[in-house]
Amino acid sequence: MLSVEGQLDLMGEVVRPQRVTPSAGYEYAVAQGIAHEPAFNWWVTHVLRKRDRIVAAVKKRNVRYLKKTHKFGIELPKSVAEAYELDRRNGDTKWADAIAKEMKNVRVAFRILPNGERVPQNYQFVHCHMIFDVKMEDLRRKARLVAGGHTTVAPATMTYASVVSRETVRIALLIAALNDLPVWAADIMNAYVTAPNQEKIWTTLGPEFGEDAGKKAIIVRALYGLKSAGASFRNHLGECMRALGCLAWRTLIYGSSRRRQRTGLSTTRTSCATSTTYL
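The chain above was modelled as a monomer; its predicted structure follows.
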């Protein structure tokens, strides 16, 4: 049973529409041109103002997030030039050392073209830039050179990379424990850069390259930020593991399965995920 003031619920009590769905209520009142009616004018204006305040607060918080300049009380640079300026003001070389360390490891990913040599056809251009962070454990400065892979076009078959599930890792550790097998673990520095790049990408070198800044270069390694970087490293790691004599253990983790009968014929639909673990 509906009324101008509200509606009756199952217990016979009046439920005010502005208390149930205020946003839908005021939108309907405004759309129908009845917001000035006594049943609406005493609360619609208040809800509209409250909505505007909430939206403004969210936008303001988003701006604060985008303008984040410090981490753990340490100012973060937005560019290489700003990083060097911070070192000059602070009287140290922490950001410069972080940039030099990153460039020492990542320079192998670029094949610098001689002056006058043109970029081959069918190569896509990307911007590369440095991002900065502060490590939580020791407040060490961290710099990472990344590519703007979001501006490139790459086929889905080149960008897919499966990820081992947590359950598969636990099963592997359980099997190793039951059979007294040694477990090896390693941390690969700049892991993606160790793999060859599958995409045809070129860029213009930035100020972090020193005297080579402004030159054109072909990205020959799977630089962080490229769409195919994860898949390239996965394939490269698999080849290295197989070359070491490791065997691939494929695990099928079955999900939902449904079987139905139709006109005497049965059809089965099974969803499963596949992961590869090397032993």
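Confidence is low (pLDDT under 50) at residues 1-15, 251-276.
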